[in-house]
Amino acid sequence: MKFNPITICVLLILAFCSCKKDLGNYKYSPPTEPIVVNLQDATVDATIGDTLVLQPYISFKDADPTKDLDFDWRISIQEEARDIHYTGYPLKVVYSLAPGVRAAKLTVTDKRNSMKYFYDFKISGKTQFSKGLAVLSVQDGITKLSFVKADTIGVLPDLYFALHHENLPETPLQLFARPVFYQPGTVQDYWVICADANKSSVIIDGSTMLKKRDFPGQFFSPPATIKPEAFEATKGWVSGVINDKLYLSVTSTAPFAEDWGKFANPVAGNYELSPYFSNTNNFFFGYDKKRSAFVSFSPSGAYLDTLYTVTGTAFNPQKLGMKDLLFMKPVSGRNYAFMKSNDGQIYEFSFNVDMDDYSNTRIISADDKRIFKGAALVNADTKWQRSYLDVFYFTSNDKIYRYNPINQDLRTLDANFGGKKVTMLKLDDNDNKLIVGVDGALMFLDISVGVNGTIKRTVTGIPGAPVDEVSKN
Fold this sequence. Notes:
The structure is a single chain. By secondary structure, the chain is mainly beta. Helices cover about 5% and strands about 45% of the residues. Strands 2-9-8-5-6 form a five-stranded mixed beta sheet. It has a five-stranded mixed beta sheet with strand order 24-28-27-26-25, with no helix packed on it. A four-stranded antiparallel beta sheet has the order 12-11-10-37. About 30% of the residues are buried. Residues about 20-25 have low confidence and may be disordered.
């Protein structure tokens, strides 16, 4: 086939003009983005056991959200190192995760072009027991566990019996709260620690207040006899005095493993540890009732006995000759201990503790020993507390006293309990409030600067005499 040269020229000119005109038609239009209202960076409350519904308003120009979008909801379970996923809109599930604030993310996918959009938020899981006070008390010899909700002054009295139709062990000593791993300020378990020789102490779920297990289940292999005395939570583990020995919970497994936090064997050594022990930054410190001496343990819990240097001559911390330690709350630095001698006199010991396992420093400075100014006020069941400012509070029948060892200032707090004996004394974390238990009630005393213990709040309806409490805020 032959083409006329003129025809070919005309076709080329038309093609060139067409291409030039087409170049001017291209304009970039980015895809629209869905608008999700009131979700990004928000914190959503969820009640455990109830249905969680998340249905944020979603707008998408030129699209139908119900047809053109996919929804993926991810909730992080940090303590188990995993996520859970739900799909669809709205999110509607029965919330069953443990209490606490959890990171979450909504991923919206445009099915038409596979574009993804991300919206971070948080879920705060709560139960009706997430905020308030758990109160351990004793009434007519029967141990009671009650709960005071944060949003009311009403009490759920004797809650354990109401849920389980059985009584707790007798002779309650402590209500210990084991926190959720990685979530300070929470309560995973309540340990109802009792000195009942015929019935074991009990561990209760902090979310539901239902019994999880008897205390022997906290051991890999429980000893034949279990005499629990005192516990504290420090640095992600639980330490406690059981059968006069120091026990440390196992943390070598994953936090979500079944064996996490259980007790193995006691720290070996020829000692009988007083319940008044503490885990400071660099060591454990306590009092050996058997040898009447201050003893220490390494950060990992190895028994170091009295392997420390003594300075000062006020007393010999390696042999005090007194087995009855009334109160001590050890810290790094200045310490005080109150002890009763064999002749019944009560002494106050002041000493400085400087121990660091890493620098191999072990020194106790024995600074002073004197008769305690408030000795005549101390009873067999006196309760004690120590503030961060080294001010001590102690009870004597229906009175509470404030004692400053620096100047030996001893004064009675203003609170009037109507002649009722004080059976519980707790100091809050901010050192500005005392929580006091008397028969049938809890009272909250203001001890902030310039205030001498006035009653600010009273909660009635507690069955019997309070022994201990745990606050959840």
